[in-house]
Structures are given as structure tokens and as C-alpha cells.
Amino acid sequence: MPATKYKTKRGAVKWKASFWYTDWTGARRKKKKEGFDKKSDAQAFEREFLLKNGRSCDMSFASLVELYQADADHRVRGGTRETQDSIIDKWLLPYFGDLQVNEIDAVAIRNWQNVVMSAVNPRTGRKYAETYTRTINSRLSAIFNYAVMFYNLHKNPCLPAGFMGKKKAGKMKFWTLAEFSQAIPLVTKPGFRVALMVLYWAGLRVGECLAITPADVLPTKAIRIEKTHHRKEGEDAPGPPKTENSVRDVSIPGFLYDELVGYINALYDIGVGDRVFYFSHGTLNRELDRVAAASGVKRIRIHDLRHSHAALLVELGYSIVAVAERLGDTVKVAMETYSHLYPDKMETIADDLERHAKSKDEPVSAPPSADLSGLINVLEKVEKSAEKK
Questions:
Q1: Rounded to whole angstroms, how far apart are CA atoms 178 and 282?
Q2: Following DSSP, what letter does each residue of 104-137 receive, concatenated?
Q3: Which of 112, 214, 225, 249 is the most exposed place for a label (fewest CB within 10 A)?
Q4: Which domains does the chain have, with CATH numbers?
């Protein structure tokens, strides 16, 4: 059925698209959409809809992205989805949105890569990190892989174009206890101060921290992690944690428990299910930038406070298994992320094995610090030691 003209109640002339199509079950259905200013707009809507429903890649990249994101609605969680959408909106749609999917080739991809690699981050005044540009490239490639699998695209044009950036960062950045102790006194707003302390001393993900409610702070001096916080289209969008391992109770030192409870008690009219940290990931990251510059310590990302906690645990002698358990990671992920922090620990193990091989004594059991049973007492002592310096 061709596009038809109609008048609104206010007398404005508009166009509507109305047509039949066959859905994925084989059933015939009618599709209607009104409100187009021009006949060509209504016709373009019909054409794009039929192409998408017909599993053809002869559609715009923007239409393919709509299909990809609709599929991701049921498969990708919280903060990960927010990051993916941000990359798509900032780096992919402005460049490829109006192009036909089957007309985007390796040359177009290479030209786009050059644009991304030469772009300057306005926050730092430097080019974007190579790990970030790699992530951008991977998202574009994932969308084309989706088109290959489900919309009969002949091949992914990202493959002959090659990848940009690096899969892994160079040296991991984190704050030592001395650096954290130097920076934290310069945080003047209570909410920022307590949130940064939770990230450093409990090792939570940022979304886990920002999702904390009064009900999550347990009288056993632990924080219950069973949700995460992110933003979607400018609105708060709480969701489940990143993985099954992420659901956990994280024991915290007494000084941190007192800070957190004191902060919550000072909040006006807060309910047991309300978020105690009212700000966003970006706002907290900007505060971290500010205190880093003011205190003279190196600049790190807000997520690097989680790495800082892991580095502190390693320095205190905790095993990779214990680190993974506390952070809500699998051992595999923890090994991939933090194994480089253990080189001197490996030498210590080798020395211990050497001594036991020469001795007739039975090997001694692992030290108490090999698991998490004594962690809170250790952290209490570490914090008091830092205060004296």
C-alpha cells in the first residue's frame, strides 16, 4: 500500500505508511506508522522496515544498529551495555549511520580508523588510549559479524581492514596506599570521600558502589553486592551485577563501616532502598582527576581504584584465588588481570620449595594471609599505620 496523506486534529498535513509483511513465524501482519512530514519519509520507513524484516543487508548502517541493539537488550547487562551504546553513538553512527551496510568496505573502515586514531580526548588533551580505540574497533566488527550471521552480509569488512589499537594496556595504573593517603584528605564533599574510600578499601566495581543502598550495608560490617548502577538514555537504570561471581558480601574494615554508616545517617529522608551515592560515574571520575592534580599524585581512572585494592591485597600476601573471591571475579579473569603483580611472589615460592626440598621436615601450611579470613584485621592495621606516617 502506498504512503497516504492525512490531516491531524490541528489541521497539519502529514503522511503515513501502512503495509503488510511476513514476520519470522511466517504470519502475515500489518504495520502502520504516522507522523511523517514528507511522502518520501514514509516510503523510506516502509522500505527500511521490509529490508530489515527480510533479513537483507541492503539497509542503512543505522537500521542495522537498531536490530543489533534490540538483540542486545536481552543479552548484555548494565554498565557493559551503557559502554557499548556510548561507543556506537559517539564513534560509529556519526560516520557510518547513513551508509548502506553492503557498501561499506575495508577502505571506508581504514579511513574511519585514521579519524579515530587522530582524535584528541578533550578531557586529557591527548589522543585516546590504544586499548580504547581497540574497543571501538571491536564494537564495529561485532556489529558486522551480527550482519554476517543473521542478515546475509557476505563478509565482515573490518577483517581485511585490520584492527587498530592494542588489546591489552601497558603497565597497569593504580595508587599505592601512600598515594591514596595523600589524595583522600583533599576530597571535601562527604559523598565523594566515602565513595572513593569504598572503592579503594573494598575493591568494588564503580557500578556496584553507586548502587549501594542503606539496606546493603549489613550490621556484620559487610556490603551486600547484588545489583549494579548505570545510566541509560539519561535515566538511572539499575540492573544485576556483571557476572554470577559478582553477587557476594564484601567484608569491610571497621573504620570504613563507621564512615559509611555515619554518612548514610547524615543523609536527609533517605529510604532503605534509595541509592546513598547520588552522583554518576563521570562526576566521580572528575573528582578523582581534581584531587590527583591537587595532591600531586599520578592521574588514574576511577576503575583503577579497584586495581589499587587488588594490588594492596597482593602486597599483603593474598593469593590470586582470594583476590578473585573478594573482587567477584573468576580466577581466570583475576589471573589475566593481576598475575603481573606476582613476580616476586613466584620467586618466594621457588625459594620456599628449595628449602623444603633440602629439609626433612614436613612442609608448613600456607600462611593465614593466603585466604580472606584475617583480611579485615590486616586492613585495619594497614590503615592505622598509614595514618601515623
A1: 25
A2: --HHHHHHHHHHHHH-EETTTTEEPPHHHHHHHH
A3: 249
A4: 4-161 (1.10.150.130), 173-389 (1.10.443.10)
Asked if 232 and 239 touch (Cβ cutoff 8 Å), the reply is no
Q: How far is CA 382 from the centre of its chain?
A: 30
Strands 13-22, 28-36: pairing kind: antiparallel
Is pLDDT at 368 greater than 50 in this prediction?
no
Please state the φ and ψ torsions of residue 190, each to the nearest 5 degrees: -55, -40
Residue 66, beta-bridge partner list: none
User: Which range, of 39-43, 142-146, 192-196, averages the lowest pLDDT?
Assistant: 39-43
Report the distance separating Cα 291 and Cα 348, nearest Å: 37
Distance of alpha carbon 125 from the chain centroid? 23
pLDDT in tens, 92-114: 999 999 999 989 999 999 999 99
Q: What is the DSSP letter of 103?
A: G
Residue type, 105: D
Span 141-145, mean pLDDT?
Answer: 95
